[in-house]
Write a structure and sequence with these properties.
Number of strands: 13
Shape: globular
Number of helices: 17
CATH superfamily of the largest domain: P-loop containing nucleotide triphosphate hydrolases
CATH architecture of the largest domain: 3-Layer(aba) Sandwich
Bound molecules: adenosine-5'-triphosphate, magnesium ion
Structural class: alpha/beta
CATH topology of the largest domain: Rossmann fold
Radius of gyration: 26 Å
Helix content: 40-55%
CATH class of the largest domain: Alpha Beta
């Protein structure tokens, strides 16, 4: 009798244990293009939207579009998705994340999205002939894209049509009040046609800088900007592409941010709920349950991922999968990482593989020196250059365009996963 009671209770216990952590409940999301449930940092960029871009555009003040660039997996898409989600919560009109596939015509994709925004703005329902005609013209851009300007010698260029519609959407948002129309274009480095890129940037830039004449009661007139906001996201190369094509105009109309890896303190804070109160999971039979994490396990995840958001999610996911109990242990973090290390290595290898040969040589030469010896002179010597200045342009690009190297005294790596891969056994555990 006693025996069976014990049996019964251990069975119940085991059952509860098995159901504690399932893949279905994992809050970690490596690789998916959604806003991760476990969010770390990026407070500067989030507050830039909340405290600067949105309120200024709503107030009719000019504020440049935002370009957010960074190496693969640094969280560009997630960041702007999160901004877009918060905008949507405020009632703003938001395009979905418009991903430009390699070589695709961006004008088509943007035209399609603007037609949907126009719908949301109530423009499609308006009786005005002028608006109807404009929507028709945008529909031809959505169908033919950039090639429209080649096919029809006369008639407006596709970009002017897009600008006009953007302005109409802005006016509708102004009439509605307290609404911003937000456009997010992702993977902008994939726009291979220079002409299509320049048309796109001009269309967006012209709409952002448009001045609307407003008459307030009493007959006073003034000019204001429309409540429109644009976010472009993509790989660092985009800065060269846009700069080469539209140069100073692009810089005047878009403010570029290079994303850096996340700070360890932000990553620790993101995992803190696991340590303090436990992460709530749906659990079995409708009872919610909590999954905890040992503080050492929290630290281990942060140490392993080297500030890389993708690797952070991956390490967390693998640790979650490595056990089924209600505490994520350090041993599980390590076991999980072991199974992820090939993927972590491939992630960094992809970043290195995209570097032009000289840049790759530079980071390898730099990694070969001990940290205090990493001066431009020593690095260029190691690269076999006759003059130190020969390595100058490469080092400048690695710093300002890519955010991989910091040209301090001495030089250091800002991309900590790249550094770890080049200078240690990482991602393998000791
Ligand atoms: N602030 C963050 N906190 C926690 N996890 C994040 C954060 N930002 C991104 N991630 C996670 O990092 C991974 C990569 O994010 P994302 O896809 O946004 O990167 P990306 O820079 O757009 O990469 P790519 O260049 O490959 O498009 C995703 O799994 C995402 O969930
Ligand atoms: Mg992305």
């Amino acid at each position: 009798m006693r025996y069976s009671l014990i049996n019964l209770s251990t069975d119940l216990f085991a059952d509860k244990f098995i159901n504690m952590r399932t893949p279905l409940d994992s809050p970690f999301s490596p690789g998916s293009d959604t806003v991760p449930q476990i969010w770390a940092g990026r407070t500067e960029q989030l507050s830039d939207w909340r405290d600067v871009v949105r309120p200024r555009r709503l107030a009719g003040l000019h504020e440049r579009g935002r370009t957010i660039l960074g190496e693969a997996g640094l969280g560009k898409s997630s960041l702007v998705r999160r901004i877009a989600a918060s905008a949507q919560n405020e009632g703003d009109w938001v395009t979905p994340q418009l991903r430009i596939p390699s070589g695709a015509d961006p004008l088509k994709k943007v035209a399609e999205a603007l037609l949907r925004l126009a719908d949301q703005a109530g423009l499609s329902a308006m009786k005005e002939k002028q608006i109807g005609a404009l929507l028709n013209r945008v529909e031809s851009v959505a169908a033919s894209g950039f090639s429209l300007s080649l096919r029809q010698a006369s008639g407006p260029e596709p970009y002017t049509v897009l600008t006009e519609l953007l302005i109409e959407i802005g006016r509708a948002a102004l009439r509605q009040g307290d609404v911003v129309a937000l456009i997010h274009i992702d993977e902008v480095q994939n726009i291979s046609s220079e002409d299509a890129l320049s048309q796109l940037l001009i269309a967006l830039g012209d709409a952002l800088t448009h001045e609307e004449q407003i008459t307030v009661p009493g007959g006073v007139q003034f000019q204001c900007a429309l409540p429109l906001a644009v976010y472009l996201t993509g790989l660092p190369e985009f800065a060269d592409m846009a700069g080469a094509r539209t140069g100073a105009t692009f810089v005047r109309r878009f403010q570029t941010t290079m994303l850096a890896p996340l700070e360890d303190s932000d990553l620790l804070a993101a995992l803190q709920p696991f340590v303090v109160e436990g992460w709530e999971t749906p659990g079995s039979e409708g009872r919610s349950e909590r999954v905890f994490m040992e503080p050492e396990a929290q630290q281990a995840i942060v140490d392993l991922c080297r500030g890389e958001p993708f690797l952070f999610q991956l390490a967390g996911e693998r640790a979650w999968y490595a056990g089924s109990g209600d505490v994520i242990t350090t041993a599980q973090v390590r076991a999980g990482w072991q199974s992820a290390s090939a993927e972590a290595e491939a992630h960094v290898e992809r970043i290195l593989a995209r570097l032009p040969q000289r840049e790759r040589q530079f980071v390898e030469a730099m990694a070969g020196l001990s940290p205090e010896d990493r001066t431009l002179t020593r690095i260029s010597e190691a690269m076999g250059y006759a003059k130190t200045s020969d390595a100058g342009p490469t080092s400048r690009r690695l710093d300002t365009v890519r955010g991989i190297v910091r040209r301090g005294k001495p030089y250091s790596f800002s991309h900590r996963a790249v550094e770890a891969a080049l200078t240690s056994e990482w991602p393998d555990l000791e």
